[in-house]
Fold:
Amino acid sequence: MRNRPELDKAIDALPTKGVLVLAERDRTTRSLVDGIAIMQRAHKLGPYIKVLDKPGLDLTTPSDRGILALLSGLAEEERTPILRRTNEGRIAAIKRGCKLGRRPKLDDHQQKEAIKRLETGESCPSIAKKHNGSTMQPLPDWQSWTSGHVSRASSTRLAMVLLIGLLSPSPSTAQQCDGVALAVATNERRCLRPGGGERFKDCADCPEMVVVPAGAFVMGSPPTEPEREADREDQVLVTIARPFAIGAFAVTRGEFAAFVAATNYALDQGCYFWTGTMWEERSDRSWRSPGFPQDDRHPVTCVDLKAAKAYASWVSGKTGKRYRLPSETEREYVSRAGTDTPFWSGYSISTDAANYNGTISSVLGPSGERRQMTVRVDSFRPNPWGLYNVHGNVWDWTDDCWNESNADNPRDGSVRTTGDCAWRVARGGAWNYGPTYLRSAYRYWNLPHNRSGVQSFRVARSL
Structure:
């Protein structure tokens, strides 16, 4: 490692108040993302990640924030339960100001004892103990641990430096929350783990939300994905720099009714109704009567883009939090929930897992049911991040203008405000569409004033 001497000097010279992550590029970016996730869990610093792809970074420059080094080897060790506990012990020691080294070669009992000592806060210096007549060696210094991982990864190239500034609360405060400390409603504080699927509400009539983690993902579909729209689903690497919250469900009829009652909001008359063979615009159809039976736990339909944004604005004003429509990038990100397959559940889907037209022949799933209506928003299993019906049931509005490809995507999760803004992007598929439209990468367009029995939305909240 070319910068090893400089790294040693930096670690020796500075206190452990912040973190410098040196990530080695693996065969994929997965270990890099995992490494970020570990540090987010340890330091709650997701919003402050900065990517500095600068080989000339001066690691010897002192800072009153301080640094520690962590290589991608820690991310790889995170993959097994016992090593995860080892890393949690390291994290606890880091917060006490220790510099830890590589995991010593111990038997299972000795390793558990070492973890226990770290977790219970024993002092950082040498903590050798006798066990069955043998001496447990103290943990070596942090540089030895990093050096070991560098030698094992010597074939890879140091490509990215992620600098996480220490802008979080004091260590004693941070230790109380292993996720995102969130202000909920008017006077409640919650600690939520991004991606954990735990729901929260900012008011009685507000939608139920989940917090999703920061991370990187490949937007679009690979050339080998069946039934892909090649030109519209080109792949781009996107980085979501900070966690955000999004509706666990599409906004329900009951939640939308509360908005209408509070604001006297009036949608334009009429809604497109699917007859089974064609779309008809019917003046007697509306979000209250879309043409099929619903209750207050069904997704609201027959809602145009203007009404969806008005709803988000109302929730923002009611709660003092920033609610909005998600971008199409965010919508694909939360649909995938860390996966890279056509659906979060794998390479195929069935009507036992989603609401769509199962009579349409497709290599993406077996023949199945055709319900011809919405189902309740909590139907079927949620994805790994706690979102329901990201595939099928109803289309979700996003705030993006339509573009024919992903090529000019901002790649940071933000909304695309350029392109053909006479059309807007919808995502997710719906109850009368075939399985190809449900794929995470599928991009659909709709007129912003269009109201139909398949069009709904879910809201996001910036943290």
User: Anything to note?
Assistant: The chain has a mean pLDDT of 75. The radius of gyration is 25 Å. Residues 209-462 form a domain with the paralog of FGE (formylglycine-generating enzyme) fold (CATH 3.90.1580.10).
